[in-house]
Amino acid sequence: MTIHKEGYATLMVSGILFAIVTWVLCRYVCWLCWPIGLVLLALWLFLVSFFRNPDRKLKGLLPDKILCPADGKIVVIEETEENEYFKDKRLMVSVFMSPLNVHVNRNPVSGIVRYFKYHPGKYLAAWEPKASTVNERTTTVYETTGGKSILIRQVAGALARRIVWYVGEGNKVIQGEDMGFIKLGSRVDLYLPVGTKVLVKIGDVVKGNITEIAEWK
Hints:
Layout: H1 8-28, H2 30-50, E1 65-67, E2 72-82, E3 88-97, E4 104-106, E5 111-119, H3 131-134, E6 137-143, E7 149-156, E8 163-165, E9 172-173, E10 178-182, E11 186-192, E12 197-198, E13 205-206, E14 212-215
Antiparallel strand pairs: 1-14, 2-3, 2-13, 3-11, 4-10, 5-6, 5-9, 6-7, 7-11, 8-10, 12-14
């Protein structure tokens, strides 16, 4: 298992801090040393698990497929108005990411980033319907080589306090490569053209770069 680069500093600082706290307890409050030390170790191992980055490199590109950009569970599949960029009706598919999921976000298609914007905002629970429009979030629009466009929205949740992105307007991107990271529980929304064939259903557990979310007609 490899660790994502976003976790290096967090794991190093927390590891040093936890070690110092445990050493102080062992030296001055011996009876608290083991129980608190074990709790801190469990917390640090949770952080290691949170920042894990499994190898999901594609063996070959799938230009006719839209791959899942994140690990989690499908919580929404519905037609809705997308009012930031397309300003028309789109098919929204939402993936909820719990703190136990891999939190790397990946490009669902290859193409060019035609639009990108970061929005500061609130930190409502990620499963709240209005979280997509009022929470801290980013909006990224991809145009594929075939001329079709999809929008991805990284949405911070009640625990998430930092969204990281690696794309910008004009960037050429490759399907499956990292496009960002969201720390702690969060959500990723995809806005697809109405009529796109969706290959998942609500409640499905999905994995980034493995699950095929939809396919172009």
